[in-house]
UniProtKB/TrEMBL annotation:
Keywords for the protein's UniProt record, in alphabetical order: Cell membrane, Membrane, Nitrate assimilation, Transmembrane, Transmembrane helix, Transport
GO terms, molecular function: nitrate transmembrane transporter activity; nitrite transmembrane transporter activity
Organism: Kushneria phosphatilytica
The name this protein goes by in its record: Nitrate/nitrite transporter
Residues spanning the membrane: 21-46, 58-76, 88-106, 112-131, 152-174, 180-201, 243-268, 274-293, 314-332, 338-362, 369-391, 403-420
First-listed, main subcellular location of the protein, grouped into a coarse class: membrane
Membrane topology: Multi-pass membrane protein
GO cellular component, one term: plasma membrane
Family statement drawn from the similarity comment of this UniProt entry: Belongs to the major facilitator superfamily. Nitrate/nitrite porter (TC 2.A.1.8) family.
């Protein structure tokens, strides 16, 4: 789709333009989704004792929490093309808050599994976040915008690991038992999810010039008809081998991050005999790297594009993926807590930069099917998490062995990034668009007072 008046600069302190409102609300909404999605993960040691779960059963719940997201991400991409990101996000947040609050009713492995399966749907929020920022920002900053909104959203994976044990402790201070405490603690993220959905509907719009229904009424956007329908867009995206290459790549970066979010707390709790709060704090450091790491991936993608165009974006993606795999192999070998934390931070840096680099490429694959492309690639992350989940449900493999094999897989999959290629015509067109947006930004910067820059 051709969207006009995209922002060619990111003004973090601004909330006055529709572009920056979408920027801030989309990353915040995705951030809050992590509280619902992975809020139970740092409490799993308590849940395990309460419900009598085995390692295999815990592994199955981990798989369930990310498996359903594969399907929902595919659907949500189509929904964004049809009704716009504003309404899609509102419905997802409000409906997704219900199973988060109701997981406390689980009294067996089966009911807990079903609850985690239902909660996994809110993981599709990532696709809407990337879709919304992609249509709000120009080519010279879209990589940075996508990486930052996603990164600050993913930061929720870290803050959740730190805050949910504190919420749990606060509930226990009311005099309730641990059995009731973890159930009441999950009501908190559910309420916040619902309120965020209402705020998203009231404070954002689909595109710089208005909502999709308004743009279609003015003839500025094609109707969501059979000719230009969402399913036709999906078919076009699904036929493109580059989309599936990025599907694999994202499986090996975001899929790995989801897996670590699920197992990190219980891994440090069991391996190094730590308290629940300490294990959660250390596990949270992995996610907290999203504060800047994924943004760096997008910034480097835009910088590589300045020097080498779309080829530069692809080369940077391959390099980030390769370094991620090597760092993960190193993390799997650590036996000393301090060294394990150090190499985990290096690994976290590269896995999140690889994610930012992936969605520095996605907006240029097929602009007429942006939602479908984002949905398929985004689903790859959850497919990767499902595949990795089978490594960590096995009673015959230790967590460290599972991490080592996962690192080997990442190194091998990094080569898939090099399958993403563009025609000379597309490269020339995107280079011209990049230069035009960059020049327009330079002109505005030169004309603006120093205090406004």
């Amino acid at each position: 789709m051709d969207i006009r008046h995209k922002a060619n600069r990111i003004r973090l302190a601004s909330f006055s333009t529709p572009q920056m409102r979408a920027f801030h609300l989309s990353w915040f909404a995705f951030h809050i989704c992590f509280f619902g999605w992975f809020g139970i993960a740092p409490l799993m040691a308590v849940v395990r004792d309460d419900l009598g779960l085995t390692k295999t059963q815990i592994g199955n719940t981990i798989i369930a929490s990310v498996a359903i997201t594969i399907v929902v991400r595919l659907v949500i991409g189509l929904l964004c093309d049809r009704i716009g990101p504003r309404r899609a996000y509102t419905w997802l947040l409000c409906l997704g808050s219900l199973p988060v609050m109701l997981i406390g009713l689980a009294d067996s492995f089966e009911t807990f599994l079903l609850a985690r399966l239902a909660i996994g749907a809110i993981g599709a929020s990532f696709v809407i976040t990337q879709y919304h920022s992609s249509i709000m920002f120009a080519p010279n900053v879209v990589g940075t915008a996508n990486a930052t909104t996603a990164g600050w959203g993913n930061l929720g994976g870290g803050t959740t690991q730190i805050l949910m044990p504190l919420v749990f402790s606060g509930v226990l201070m009311l005099g309730v038992s641990e059995t009731l405490g973890w159930r009441l603690a999950m009501v908190v993220p559910g309420i916040v999810l619902f309120l965020t959905g209402i705020a998203y509907y009231r404070l954002t719009q689909d595109a710089p010039d208005g909502n999709f229904d308004e743009l279609r009424a003015r003839g500025e956007l094609p109707e969501a008809s059979r000719e230009h329908g969402a399913f036709q867009s999906f078919a076009a995206a699904a036929k493109d081998i580059r989309v599936w290459a990025l599907f694999l790549v994202y499986a090996a970066c975001f899929g790995v991050e989801l897996t670590i979010n699920n197992i990190a707390a219980i891994y440090f709790f069991d391996t190094f005999s730590l308290s629940l709060a300490t294990a959660g704090l250390i596990a949270g450091l992995f996610g907290l790297m999203n504060l800047f790491a994924r943004t760096l991936g997008g910034i480097f993608s835009d910088l590589f594009a300045r020097k080498s165009g779309l080829k530069g974006r692809v080369r940077w993606l391959f390099l980030a993926m390769l370094c991620e795999g090597v760092a993960l192999i190193g993390f799997a070998q650590m036996q000393v807590l301090a060294m394990a934390i150090g190499i985990m931070l290096v690994f976290s840096l590269f896995v999140q930069m690889a994610e930012g680099a992936t969605f520095g490429v996605v907006p240029f694959i097929n602009k007429q099917a942006l939602g479908a492309v984002a949905g398929i690639v985004g689903a790859g992350g959850n497919a990767g998490a499902v595949a990795a989940g089978f490594l960590f449900r096995s009673e015959s493999l230790t967590y460290q062995e599972g991490l080592f094999y996962l690192g080997i897989a990442v190194v091998l999959i990094s080569v898939a990034a090099l399958a993403v290629r563009f025609t000379p015509a597309v490269e020339a067109e995107e280079e011209a668009a990049y230069r035009q947006a960059a020049d327009a930004d330079d002109d505005k910067a030169g004309a603006a007072p120093i205090a406004a820059r």
